[in-house]
């Protein structure tokens, strides 16, 4: 059972464009939703995260939009740059106690053309 | 250290052999996680350590997999009698508290 579904699998965007990646989750106990960025040969790096008490969080060019009723959240990358080309993973966690084990989506390979 | 260190970075082993993968978390980070990243399966949680508490082993795929964390710092993931389906990148992550992990660069395991 895939608890976090991510789409699209791959995305090609022109420099300066907006990249949008979507995720949907099933477990209503999830209360922490991070996005990770991964470059080839490296481990994932935390990009931005949101909790369900807010509908949007923005950090620089990166914005998470969160829809609790639809159980969906998305990452928007504004003014996309070639350096943003990487694989992006959404994830979710139920932060009961101190164990923040994450359930990941399967990833989106983003290519930003110059 | 400045980051999470994993060794070796690459490991090729023959089917049926045992392997040990090492993780050095960031100093002072009490929480340590192991994940597996494989093609088609994405990132899968394996095991979680927090201080002296009993680990959460719920993600270990079989009894061939085990992990320990000595002295609340270094962790070793052991895979016994490796199979070809064990081929993957094994990632370690640590955090001081809360959900903001720092991942290492992983160990790429290839079972031939």
Task: Report the C-alpha radius of gyration of chain B, rounded.
Answer: 13 Å
Please, what is the average pLDDT of chain B?
93
Q: Tell me the number of strands of chain A.
A: 11
Overall average pLDDT of chain A: 94
Order of helices and strands of chain B: EEEEEEEEEE
Hey, roughly how much beta strand do the residues of chain B contain? over 45%
The assembly state of the depicted protein chains is heterodimer
The percentage helix of chain A is: under 10%
What order do the SSEs of chain A take from the amino end to the carboxyl end, as H and E? Answer: EEEEEEEEEEE
Poorly predicted residue ranges of chain A:
none
Structural features, described:
The complex is a heterodimer of chains A (114) and B (112). By secondary structure, chain A is mainly β. Chain A has no helices and eleven strands. Chain A is 0% helix and 52% strand. In chain A, the strands form two sheets. In chain A, strands 2, 4, 5, 9, 10 and 11 form a six-stranded mixed β-sheet that branches. In chain A, strands 1-3-8-7-6 form a five-stranded antiparallel β-sheet, with no helix packed on it. Chain B has 112 residues and is mostly beta strands.
């Amino acid at each position: 059972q895939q608890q976090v579904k991510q789409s699209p699998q791959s995305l090609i965007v022109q420099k300066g464009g907006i990249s949008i990646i979507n995720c949907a989750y099933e477990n209503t106990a999830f209360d922490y939703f991070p996005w990770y960025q991964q470059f080839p040969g490296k481990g994932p790096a935390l990009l931005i995260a949101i909790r369900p008490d807010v509908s949007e969080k923005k950090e620089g060019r990166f914005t998470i939009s969160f829809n609790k009723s639809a159980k969906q959240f998305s990452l928007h990358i504004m003014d996309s740059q070639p350096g943003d080309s990487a694989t992006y993973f959404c994830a979710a966690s139920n932060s009961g106690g101190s164990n923040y084990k994450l359930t990941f989506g399967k990833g989106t390979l983003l290519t930003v053309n110059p | 250290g400045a980051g999470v260190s994993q060794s070796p970075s690459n490991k090729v082993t023959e089917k049926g052999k045992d392997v040990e993968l090492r993780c050095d978390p960031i100093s002072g980070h009490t929480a340590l996680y192991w994940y597996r990243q494989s093609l088609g399966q994405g990132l899968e949680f394996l095991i979680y350590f927090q201080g002296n508490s009993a680990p959460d082993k719920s993600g270990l795929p079989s009894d061939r997999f085990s992990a320990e964390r000595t002295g609340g710092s270094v962790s070793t993931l052991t895979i016994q009698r490796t199979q070809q389906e064990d081929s993957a990148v094994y990632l370690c992550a640590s955090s001081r508290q809360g959900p903001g992990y720092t991942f290492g660069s992983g160990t790429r395991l290839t079972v031939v």
